[in-house]
Write a structure and sequence with these properties.
2 helices, mainly alpha
Length: 64
């Protein structure tokens, strides 16, 4: 088991408490990068209206 992408050494950057053993959010840095690429490919495959709403909500902070 490698190091989790969210483990900065002192704490977990995702959860309030650091308890890596058995954590359901555990991913290596490579797995996290692959997951992000997959999500972005999915967003890019959507129609323009849906894609713009997702980008606005999650990356810009709200719906138009």
């Amino acid at each position: 088991m490698g190091k989790c992408f969210a483990d900065n050494g002192n704490k977990c950057t995702i959860l309030r408490t650091k308890n890596c053993k058995g954590c359901k959010f555990f991913k290596t840095q490579k797995q996290a990068e692959e997951s992000e690429k997959k999500a972005m490919n999915r967003i890019e495959s959507l129609d323009t209206h849906m894609r713009d709403n997702i980008i606005n909500l999650y990356f810009l902070g709200g719906f138009r």
